[in-house]
């Protein structure tokens, strides 16, 4: 507590005198030491817990970073494979388009060839079926038919191919068509 005395001898000179006295404390050094020890122990245990938590967080963060790195690598790999597959798919589509165009052109050529072959094909129907018939026998039949209609057919020079076909699925002794390409 501070006590101040003011002297007013002269109005311009004021002197202040202060006396400081400390309050007497009781002897509580043992309680203070116990409190200090308790606080120190408490802070040390908190520090240990915080250090453990910090280490756990660091290891978890390290694992997460590694996982993120692995995920990024996988994502990059998958993106690369996706790009490759997209290119392959595009090239296959292009190739398929060209193949379809080629098939269409071949079909057109086949149609033209079939139409042209029909113009040079003669089909003679209702000829009795002979099991041991040869191409020469068939050619002879065609030549005889040509002679009947006053259209002589030379041997082997006018005939490109000759064949005997049967429309009957049972292959019974029935009449058969004879096809000749001129």
TrEMBL record:
Q: Keywords in UniProt for this one?
A: Coiled coil
Coiled-coil region:
18-123
Name of the featured protein: (apollo) hypothetical protein
Organism listed in the record: Parnassius apollo
**Lineage of the organism:** Eukaryota, Metazoa, Ecdysozoa, Arthropoda, Hexapoda
């Amino acid at each position: 507590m501070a006590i101040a005395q003011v002297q007013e001898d002269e109005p311009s000179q004021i002197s202040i005198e202060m006396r400081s006295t400390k309050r007497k404390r009781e002897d509580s050094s043992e309680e203070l030491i116990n409190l200090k020890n308790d606080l120190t122990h408490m802070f040390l245990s908190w520090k240990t817990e915080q250090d453990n938590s910090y280490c756990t967080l660091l290891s978890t963060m390290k694992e997460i970073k590694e996982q993120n790195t692995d995920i990024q690598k996988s994502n990059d790999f998958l993106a690369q494979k996706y790009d490759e597959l997209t290119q392959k798919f595009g090239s296959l589509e292009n190739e398929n388009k060209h193949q379809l165009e080629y098939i269409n052109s071949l079909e057109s050529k086949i149609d033209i060839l079939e139409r042209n072959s029909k113009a040079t094909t003669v089909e003679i129907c209702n000829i009795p079926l002979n099991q041991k018939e040869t191409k020469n026998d068939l050619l002879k039949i065609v030549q005889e038919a040509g002679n009947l209609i006053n259209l002589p057919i030379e041997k082997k020079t006018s005939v490109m191919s000759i064949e005997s076909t049967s429309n009957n699925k049972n292959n019974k002794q029935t009449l058969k068509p004879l096809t000749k390409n001129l």
